[in-house]
Amino acid sequence: MFNFCIHMDLCCSTEHIRKNWLFSQSVDGADASAFFFSLIETAKRSDLNPMDYVEAICTFGPGGKTDEQWEALLPDKIDLGRLTEMRERRLAAKPDPARTTAYNFVGATR
């Protein structure tokens, strides 16, 4: 019975992943989709909220430079309490009244 459940779980998740590739417009798009699907499934298997885990990876990941910083993002070591602090800081942020130019948000590129 146990092996059957594992087999059905793998079959269903594989079938779900195959359907998701249908809408990839490029190889880079497929790579990005695979990255996020992997994060989401990892969070589910680790009993974490997938949205919180993806947000934490996107918030804290780009600043990671050392192995210790990257290891701190693993599902069994991540501190989602830091995410709550970041959310509170974002909500408390105020615009600069002396600013005369528009804000430009620039994301990371390859």
If you had to describe this structure to a student in words, what would you say it looks like?
The chain is mainly α and 110 residues long. It has one domain. It is 60% helix and 0% strand. The N terminus is likely disordered.
Radius of gyration: 19 Å
Helix content: 55-70%
Task: Write the H/E string, N to C.
Answer: HHHHH
Number of helices: 5
The total number of structural domains is: 1
Q: Major sheet, described briefly?
A: none
Structural class: mainly alpha
Q: What are the low-pLDDT stretches, counting only 5+ consecutive residues below 50?
A: 1-11
What is the number of beta strands? 0
Straight-line distance between termini: 46 Å
Average pLDDT reading: 78
Range of strand content = under 5%
Shape from CA axes? extended
What are the defining features of this structure?
60% helix; Transposase domain-containing protein; extended; 110 residues; disordered N terminus; mainly alpha
